[in-house]
């Protein structure tokens, strides 16, 4: 058994009363949340959504490049070079790790408290339990997808996963060990399926988009089973959300979203709860948007290699930082969480679309591509409608397929279809972090050129695709780190450009 250092108890002590007051106290001595009703437990579950951003995975992907004019930040440079990131602040793997475990801790506290409260409202209780289970499953899933090997049924039982947390932790140091990838997937699937049975939208206020509503849960299920390679279940849950036919409501109209005079206006539209394709919104503590002149970013070289047509509406608007760096208006970048009501400073954050309809659409497309010719008619028809929508009617499936055939001669048709899906998904989700998971799942290589012109290549089976767990968990917790095979230094794959 090992010790896991994740600082959970400190977080909980500021939010939740873990024990009753001493008998000699007549009143509660502080204003901590008392879990004595379903309403207060539901309030606690709102803290079960991870605050840490996976933006560092974008820096590791093929969606960013070098800009010599930018100020270089060590955490961005280390991520870009696939080194272990040493910093522990916002936008780092360590912050992402702790944020997900904090979310799990809140979900576990809510699940335990539900069994202690006696109220005659079983529907409300089930709904809260469903949301808490969904949050716990989601945080575990994102951790195992980030800090462990991609799921492979042949090796998942022996591949090191992450620590499974099933109950509230009151001690700063507790005995834990890393479960296998298979054990984590089994645990997540159990929570997910129970959540699907219990979740209810009727208890959410307003749109419910800041909670695991049923639509968001279907999106989560489609992602989970895609990563697990269970393609029939991907189709099942995606179809429950999208319907059998192409659903234009789940595909945003960029001609409407990318309108306004500032990137903040467009960012608000992109992340708006009123947009039908936005299924789950989470506030994320992110510095990335406020460091516009720093590090490796989406730039002209990436644009030239990625964008096929100037009629691609997904890239119809971009904002330059100067030099070659730019960004797409997908986030409102002027949000600050103040440290107090009277404070003039605070923590920058963004509203992140954690699940959106376009991902579910692509999840089903990929599943159909992997299922072979049995779904070919649906695949071609629905993919074609999407392409017409985002390319302003200038590209459809036959046109794109013929271009891929010419550019990749000799590639089998099934592989060509999958590549088309992954490439278009990459274009849809630039700057949103999903590309890294596709790189890992499909063992894609990545080439990075740094500000000095040196080129590094991340090979398909490179062990650095499994992001290292935080140093605190290794040193203080004595958890086994992820292996680094056949790599002595990042320069092992260095090629100097002539």
TrEMBL record:
Keywords: Signal
Domain of life of the native organism: Bacteria
InterPro entries: SusD-like_N, TPR-like_helical_dom_sf
Extent of the signal sequence: 1-19
Alphabetical list of Gene3D superfamilies matching this protein: 1.25.40.390
SusD-like N-terminal domain segment(s): 24-226
The protein's name: RagB/SusD family nutrient uptake outer membrane protein
């Amino acid at each position: 058994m090992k010790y896991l250092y994740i600082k959970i108890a400190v977080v909980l002590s500021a939010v939740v009363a873990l024990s009753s007051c001493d008998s000699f106290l007549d009143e509660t001595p502080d204003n901590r949340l008392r879990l004595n009703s379903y309403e207060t437990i539901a309030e606690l579950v709102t803290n079960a959504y991870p605050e840490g951003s996976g933006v560092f995975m974008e820096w590791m992907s093929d969606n960013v490049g070098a800009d010599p004019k930018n100020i270089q930040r060590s955490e961005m440079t280390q991520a870009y070079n696939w080194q272990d990131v040493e910093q522990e602040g916002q936008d780092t793997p360590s912050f992402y790790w702790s944020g997900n475990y904090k979310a799990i801790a809140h979900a576990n506290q809510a699940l335990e408290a539900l069994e202690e409260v006696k109220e005659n409202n079983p529907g409300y209780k089930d709904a809260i339990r469903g949301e808490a289970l969904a949050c716990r499953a989601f945080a575990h899933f994102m951790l195992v997808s980030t800090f462990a090997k991609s799921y492979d049924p042949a090796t998942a039982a022996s591949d090191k996963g992450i620590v499974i947390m099933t109950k509230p932790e009151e001690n700063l140091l507790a005995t834990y060990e890393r479960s296998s990838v298979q054990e984590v997937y089994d645990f997540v699937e159990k929570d997910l399926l129970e959540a699907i049975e219990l979740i209810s939208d009727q208890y959410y206020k307003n749109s419910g988009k800041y909670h695991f509503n049923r639509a968001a849960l279907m999106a989560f299920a489609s992602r989970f089973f895609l990563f697990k390679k269970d393609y029939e279940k991907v189709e099942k849950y995606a179809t429950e959300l999208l319907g059998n036919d192409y659903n234009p409501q789940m595909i945003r109209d960029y001609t409407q979203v990318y309108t306004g005079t500032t990137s903040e206006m467009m960012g608000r539209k992109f992340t708006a709860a009123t947009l039908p394709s936005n299924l789950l919104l989470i506030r994320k503590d992110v510095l990335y948007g406020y460091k516009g002149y720093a590090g490796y970013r989406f730039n002209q070289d990436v644009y030239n290699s990625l964008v096929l047509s100037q009629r691609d509406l997904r890239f119809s608007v971009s904002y330059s930082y100067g030099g070659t760096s730019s960004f797409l208006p997908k986030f409102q970048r002027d949000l600050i969480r103040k440290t107090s009501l009277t404070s003039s400073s605070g923590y920058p954050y963004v509203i992140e679309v954690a699940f959106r309809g376009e991902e579910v659409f692509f999840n089903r497309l990929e599943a159909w591509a992997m299922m072979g010719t049995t779904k070919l008619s649906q695949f071609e028809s629905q993919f074609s409608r999407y392409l017409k929508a985002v390319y302003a009617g200038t590209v459809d499936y036959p046109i794109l397929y013929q271009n891929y055939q010419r550019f990749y001669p000799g590639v089998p048709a099934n592989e060509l279809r999958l590549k088309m899906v992954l490439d278009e998904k990459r274009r849809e989700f630039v700057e949103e972090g999903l590309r890294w998971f596709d790189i890992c799942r499909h063992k894609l290589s990545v080439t990075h050129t740094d500000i000095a012109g040196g080129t590094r290549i991340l090979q398909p089976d490179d062990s650095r695709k499994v992001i290292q767990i935080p140093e605190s968990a290794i040193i203080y917790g004595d958890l086994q780190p992820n292996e680094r095979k056949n790599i002595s230094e990042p320069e092992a794959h260095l090629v100097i450009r002539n």
